TrEMBL record, chain A:
The keyword Nucleus does not apply. Keywords: Iron, Iron-sulfur, Metal-binding. This is Double-cubane-cluster-containing anaerobic reductase. It comes from the Bacteria. GO terms for molecular function: hydro-lyase activity; iron-sulfur cluster binding. Its cofactor is [4Fe-4S] cluster. NCBIfam families: double_cubane.
Automatic annotation (TrEMBL), chain B:
InterPro entries: ATPase_BadF, ATPase_NBD, CoA_E_activase_dom, Dehydratase_Activator_Redct. It comes from Irregularibacter muris. This is Acyl-CoA dehydratase activase. Gene3D superfamilies: 3.30.420.40. Keywords: Iron, Iron-sulfur, Metal-binding. The lineage of its organism: Bacteria, Bacillati, Bacillota, Clostridia, Eubacteriales.
Amino acid sequence: MRPELMTEIEGLRGVNSVKIKEAHEAGKKVVGMYCVFSPQEIALAADAISVTLCGTSNDPIEEAEKELPRNLCPLIKSSYGFAITDKCPYFYFSDVLLAETTCDGKKKMYELMSKLKPMHIMNLPQTAQGEEALTLWKKEMVYFKEFLEKEFDVEITEDKLKEAIQLMNRERIAMRRLHQLNAHKPAPITGMDMMLAQWLKGFNVDKEAGIDLIERFIVEVEDRMEKGIYAFDENAPRILLTGCPIGLGSEKALRILEESGASVVALENCTGYKGLDVLVDEEKDPIEALAEKYLSTPCSCMTNNNGRLDLIERLVKEYQVDGVVDLTWQACHTYNIESFTVKNFVRDELDLPFLQLETDYSDSDVGQIKVRVEAFLEGIKS
Amino acid sequence: MYSVGIDVGSVAAKAVIFDGKNIIAKKITPTGWSPKESGQQLFEEIIEVNDIKRQEIKSIVGTGYGRISLPFLDQKVTEITCHGKGAYFLDASIRTVIDIGGQDSKVISLDSKGNVIDFLMNDKCAAGTGKFLQVMAHALEIEVGELSTIAQGVEAQTISSMCTVFAESEIISLMAEGASKESIAAGLLQSVCSKAYTLASKVGVKEKVFFSGGVSKNPLLKDLLSKKLHTEVISSEFSQYLGAIGAAVIGYKK
């Protein structure tokens, strides 16, 4: 049986799409974002709502392929498809969009998308190392702040920024505590529910209410743990899922893993733990602190990206992981190439079984992926 | 006591009976349109012909894509694990299995105990599979088994398309240009060999290499693979039964 509050968490999608409409009609500004590199704090400090935009469903891909190449990452196609079909309420009510120069596919897609709504692009450095990268990224923070000040005719003060930083840190701490519940063996929450709770936070219109719900959820789960209620039994292979982001509609790999008997205990991706690991330093100058936090994101678009291996190693130990699965979206070159490095690291350094799944949002390869996943799990159990 | 292993693939259903030491019987039938019926029938026939009673069977293990549809199994195991166990049973020194079946091609790497350490499968595409050869043989108006006989010792025509549908058009164009069936057949086998080579290289080939699956019945392809991999690739009369053997071995141990 699922924790009762999951129903409320799942309901957030509907609730939030109504709330965003109401807020927009009441004159509240909305900033739509795509990526974990996007500093939500700056939007919040501008007294705007920051939301993640839709991009995890297969449905709008057909429309997107009229303008985008078929052989492109499904996440980019889905995001663009939602934008041109107006099927994402969050996109519809966004006053401005925040884009970022992560991978080549997204960069060029954003050029097309920028014709639909006012868009600001933050230029990421190619590396997170060295003073110059941080200096550049700090400037980008300032440019985004100035863009919002001009666009919304507001002043983003240092106090406002500090307040937003504290709020976002509180959200991160709550999500982190939730994630860490699954370090327990056996895991109290399925990977599917964990993914849903983490992914849905992006659509939260009311951050305070969202934090409160997660905290209540943690209490419920802890209570169930005391009663000995877990999502899986002790023998279920414990899997760390890394690689490309997932959400509802693109949860194929996670679903197949759990249907085949695995317990996905850690989600080391940007819709999971990746963005929660580092908090924003509340003592420092806010812009500097934000630049440092967001630049520390261990994303494959950075070269090199050894931080990802460090995070995988830590999570593997903390969550008593039995195997690592790396999910790569079709045509995601950075994650796909990096998979070779991750495989060698997981096998040679961590001495764990590793499986890479390269796929898209469609169901056309579900049968084959099942065989691979089941064989992988049979290998762990033997 | 006996165990029965049944491997229902996309083209053929295979069953073996294992007595704990030896494979005492094997049988193969076309899968046809119903994996459920052909699997059931195959099981009934193989025990009847060998005069084995249901009570003498301790376990029936199924593998292959059709395993899901068989209601009488005690256990279902993926073909990857079964091929590993089957290879280990036949020859404990096998470290790499190249399996090319009707719809899947895969390369499996084994440790010294027959456990799967790594494997790779073809993606959602028929390039390099038995289906690929079947479609091409049809276009050449020959039986799939004849590909290897006619291609023997012939210079291969380059087939550049990996996609089954495009490759079919390509060979039709080649025939129109006057290329011989023999040279096209040789080219097709080269193409399957090169696809298997890529998979194998990614997994890393360790000796001894065993070739299984329906396509392993093609002796020329086995030779091509040996040359390309710079190591002897072996197969046996049990090559097509490797999955069923693995399933039976797993079932007996249970």
